[in-house]
Amino acid sequence: MIDVTRLATELPNVTGYIYPNEYELHWGILIVVYPYLTGLVAGAFILASLERVFKVKALQPVYRLSLLTAFSFLLVAPLPLLAHLGHPERFSEMFLTPHTESAMAMFGFVYAWYLMVVLLLEIWFDYRRDIVFWAKEKGGFVKYVYRFLTFGASDISDAAIRFDDKIGRVITIIGIPSAFLLHGYVGFIFGSVKANPWWSSVLMPIVFLFSAIVSGIAIVLFIYMVSTMFRWKQVNMPCLNKLAELLFYAILVDFSLEALDFIQRLYESEESINILSQMISSRLFISLIVSQIVLGTLIPLVALAAARFGRIPDEMRRIMYLVAAVLVQVGIFSTRWNVVIGGQLFSKSLRGLTFYKLELSGLEGLLASGALIVLPFVILFILVKLFSPWDRQEVDVKSSKA
After folding, report:
1. pLDDT, tens digit, 9 for 90 and up, residues 336-389
2. What pLDDT, on a 0 to 100 scale, did the predictor assign at position 383?
3. How many other β-carbons are positioned within 10 Å of the β-carbon of residue 162?
4. What are the residue ranges spanned by the domains of the chain?
5. How far apart are CA 243 and CA 386, in angstroms?
6. Do 36 and 329 meet the contact criterion of CB atoms below 8 Å apart?
7. 328, 397, 333: which is closest to 370 by C-alpha?
8. Of the spans 19-28, 35-44, 218-227, which averages the highest pLDDT?
9. Between residues 99 and 321, which one has the greater pLDDT?
10. Is 151 left (phi over 0), alpha (psi -120 to 50) or beta?
11. CA 177, CA 24: separation in Å to the nearest integer?
């Protein structure tokens, strides 16, 4: 070990005793973005399943939007990992030479299953009738795009539509545990690192799952409100109220689980408790106490409770829902930051703290990470233009007339 107090002029942000190889963190913001994006995927899909499988009819206006949102973020989810690799072109080796004992390596198969089998098939079966109709109605190049996407299945009889609905429901049922697996394994990876007391917790996969549900509901609520506003349409208040209600309960459960995990750590009072307390009170005070707990949890809980169960005008209610959804995203991203970055800030000696310096540019910088977060919204915008989640009723009317 090195007494870094001698190096105060060189490393002013390092305190205590740390090992030489702990000056720089191995995982940066890209690894923070990765679980954040996968959580949005899992949460949005689970929200869609509530309408398809559990018949929560109030969520029908956002069912298709939830599917397209999950698909958009799923397309971008592996990019942070690929960007973090020294040789991203070698990603295919995980499929060609699978290593079944590596949780990281098996992610490729989980991702391929979820993308190719679950989401793509469910979206196709749900949109197949509309694609057939659009292939007949639209003109220009997009007509041939829709015609190709029918894959020759042009039957839109009542029997065929019932078959599509039945198969789609089966795929959704299969997709629910798949969504749990997609994001739960990220928490499993962190929770399995026994040498790291910040990560080693049996509750880690469960906390990751519920925080994913929270983030997914919040992002769909946000996209639904903003897109409706830009379309100059009126939001469906029963749907919005149900989204807010689900978000409130999900945050409550997620916060309770995180509090339980924290209380358990305090009760055990292992030798790492002192350095973890120092880390929380110094390095993670802003991101954990302020961003995650106060801004990302307590304020949204109060806002959602007041807006959903209080007697306030609908206009003010919508504003409070929107603010809560934005703050929830801040809180969930802070959660991912605190897990990934926080678990690397203290020394294995349990006697020192290092620091993480976020660069503005570069592959591991703020701009690159911000671009990866914005990219799914660009993809979603294109998908919404091609596969409108809004005009199902218009399609139903035109199809009946045809």
Report:
1. 999 999 888 888 877 888 888 888 888 888 999 999 999 999 999 999 999 989
2. 94
3. 10
4. 35-192+358-402, 230-356
5. 25
6. no
7. 333
8. 218-227
9. 321
10. left
11. 37
Tokens 């469960």: give the residue: 206
Residue 92 tokens read as 């295919």
Hunting for tokens 């959580």 — which residue is that? 39
Query: For the chain, what is the HEC assignment?
Result: CEEHHHHCCCCCCCEEEECHHHCCCCCCHHHHHHHHHHHHHHHHHHHHHHHHCCCCHHHHHHHHHHHHHHHHHHHHCCHHHHHHCCCHHHHHHHHHCCCCCCHHHHHHHHHHHHHHHHHHHHHHHHHHHHHHHHHHHCCCHHHHHHHHHCCCCCCCCHHHHHHHHHHHHHHHHHHHHHHHHHHHHHHHHHHCCCCCCCCCCCCHHHHHHHHHHHHHHHHHHHHHHHHHHHCCCCCCHHHHHHHHHHHHHHHHHHHHHHHHHHHHHHHHCCCCHHHHHHHHHCCCHHHHHHHHHHHHHHHHHHHHHHHHHCCCCHHHHHHHHHHHHHHHHHHHHHHHHHHHCHHHCECCCCEEECCCCCCCCCCCCHHHHHHHHHHHHHHHHHHHHHCCCCCHHHHHHHHHHC
Side chain identity at residue 221, one-letter code: L
